[in-house]
Design goal:
The structure holds 2 protein chains of 2 kinds. Chain A is an alpha/beta fold. Chain A is built from 10 helices and 14 strands. Helix content of chain A is 39%, strand content 19%. The longest helix of chain A has 21 residues, at 2-22. Chain B is mainly α. Chain B is 71% helix and 0% strand. Chain B has helices at 8-34, 42-60, 63-86, 92-110, 136-140, 145-163, 165-175, 177-182, 187-213, 225-235, 240-262, 269-289, 291-297. The radius of gyration of chain B is 20 Å and the shape is globular.
Amino acid sequence: MKLKSILAGAALAISAATGSLADKTKVGFVYVGPVGDMGWSYEHDQGRKAVDAAFGDKVETFYVESVPEGPDSERVMTNMALKGADLIFTTSFGYMDPTINVAAKFPNVKFEHATGYKQSDNVSVYSARFYEGRAVQGHIAGHMTKSNIVGYIGSVPIPEVIRGINAAYIHAKEVNPDVQFKIIWIYDWFDPAKEADAAKVLIEQGADVVLQHTDSTAPQAAAQAAGNVITFGQASDMAAYSPKPRVSSIIDNWGPYYIARTQAVMDGTWTSTSTWDGIGSGMVGIGEITSAVPAEVKASAEALRDSLADGSYHTFTGPLNKQDGSVWLKAGETAADYGPEGLAEMLFYLEGLDGEVPN
Amino acid sequence: MDLSAISPTLLVASLMVAATPILLAAIGELVVEKSGVLNLGVEGMMITGAISGFAAAVLTGSPMIGFLCAALGGAALSVIFAIITQYFLSNQVATGLALTLFGLGLSAMLGQSYVGIKPPASAKLDLPLVSDIPVIGPILFSHDFTVYAALTLVTGVWWFLKYTRGGLILRAVGESHDAAHALGYKVVRVRILAIMFGGACAGLGGAALSLVRVPQWTEGMTAGAGWIALAIVVFASWKPARVLLGAYLFGGVAVLQLNLQAAGVSIPVEYLSMSPYLITIVVLVVMSANRSKSALNAPAALGRVFHASR
């Protein structure tokens, strides 16, 4: 016992000494999936690599992948903080409360939590307006579907995912009033077996467009096997499946944000902020629309993308009703980010969608 | 809600695909248990098969070589179990559990560089005319190799156990290894062969998952399928035909749950996901309530260590 504690003390002293000698800024990343998922966690890791490339010897980055949401993530974050991390990015919604808890214990470590809404003195929140990309996907889906059935693989019923479904639906309906959405929830961000099964079932029930809010390429593979079905890359380009089934994609681009925040920690100018950027700032990218999409649809989708980027059009512009028929936005009104009816806590479907939002 | 969107034909066809991995693993484990050995390492052998098959298929570009390597990979892992339990006479339950943990770790390590890669597509049976017959075509004549392999194996195992001398010896070893030994049968050899067969089947089941059903490699992708296979063997009271029934029932509920969701039925999915396990528990309770009957079905020497003293 004694020997063990002496050794542990010595190890701590050495790591503290080398840490201060090198004077590197240490940046930790917590990922919900494997870095090789080719989706969400892959893009966060690209952001980490961008930080490495931008600062070279001045930073040291490290990551832990496939960390389950919930208590186990608290252990991982605590470990990172004990290892001397100056800045920790926790990159999934379910890390929200663990991040707040760990941050309270380490007031000198800065935390950045992705897609959540709880801030504190040393916890910033950041997210991307993925729903802007969903609007473009919905637009293409509405034009492309022949069966008028669009399948949607939902991950976890949180506001971010619900916003995406609503955004895709209203823009599909705008160009195709007969369109119908079928939604399957798999209650996970990354489970290729379940994602594949869900995609197959949607296709069997007549869907010829499959949208996914899950992180693996399994639905793309299922669509390819089925033949006449189109899909969209999620979080990452998933270009291995283009030009068909993947006809476009939402690409998360975290690099510039991660570099800016690391710089802020180095300069000592870091403060707790809330960032929510979309297509305009480049945080959300729209992957190349392939030749499987007719030229005029491609052109109108790109026009929609550009109007979202320059702010001349808001994804959620009234008149829009909730699923029960009550008015959400009056004509010409746009959705607020925060507040009881705001986008940040959107947990309701819009008029025309079937089914209920699961609890 | 729109139940008419669910096509019974496609439902049956896709439940056959969904059930194939567990069916393969379960029929292998049935043979192992019939020889009197309880190998709880099915999950570990499955996932080892999943990655060996995936890696081989990616490297060679041939799914068939992938399936072959998956069977070999599963069998190779089971040899470890066979040596430890048959020669060093270790406890089978503990060794089997260790094998599962080892298999999960080993596969995660082997699979490091295979995450996110697309495997070569395995061909589906597509007979002109026959595959296009309504109802029967999609159900019987339009699957990939693994579905037919699984059905062939079930039939083969049933025939082997019931009608062949080898099957009789295997069952004798599983019922009373002392008596079989006294008659001059090589108990240890029979059991090692049975264990390897079980390993190969589990490996094939894993490859059915990583090469056909998903198809992709992810760490821990079997997600408990091996344990379900073990439960199905007991559920089936060690009868091959009932293993088939159990596996299809299980696959059916899994597929039906997604179908109902897509059709907009508002049953909480948790209940449906739970139901196959509940049925298994109920069957186990019913079986153990009637001691005499279950004693007839379970191999009498199941899980007991054999040591030839003479």
